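If your schedule permits, I should be very grateful for your opinion on a structural question. I have a record of one protein: its chain in single-letter code and its fold written as discrete structure tokens. Kindly check, if you would, that the fold set down in the tokens agrees with what the sequence suggests. I remain grateful for any guidance, and I place the record below:

***
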Amino acid sequence: MKKQFSVVLLTLIAISLLTTSAIPGVTSESKKQAVSVEGTWKLVSYKYGSAQSAFVDRSESLSRIKVINKTHFIWVDVDTSGKVIQSAGGKYTLTEDAYTEILEFGLGMDTYLKSSPQFTVKVEGDMLFQSGFFTSGYRIEEIWKRIKE
């Protein structure tokens, strides 16, 4: 399983490195002011929807990994056998702590393709805190931990 996870992680990193087009309208000055979200992250806990009051720890049977480079992001859900269950990615914009994902492609995300959910992000040490709404009004709060391997 660890070998399959490594293959998926290396694939995500390769995709991330190959997608280096610039984002129109983002200046180097605004990039300097923005919080740095670049890296490889693993989802550790979440709250989805307005009814959920407490954070839920992510199951070890289904890992969610997110890779963010200078211009693009991709996240993927992988089960213990290494099978991709769900995924999404595309470009993003970041101004200070305002982070918007532009969902350009996905697996199992048909409802959200071509949407641009807006979030607030904060990085503290090796933790990324992301909260906001999909365009449908569905609330998302996620806590990610940086992968250092």
In short: The beta strands are 39-48, 56-57, 62-68, 72-79, 84-95, 98-107, 118-124, 127-133, 139-146.
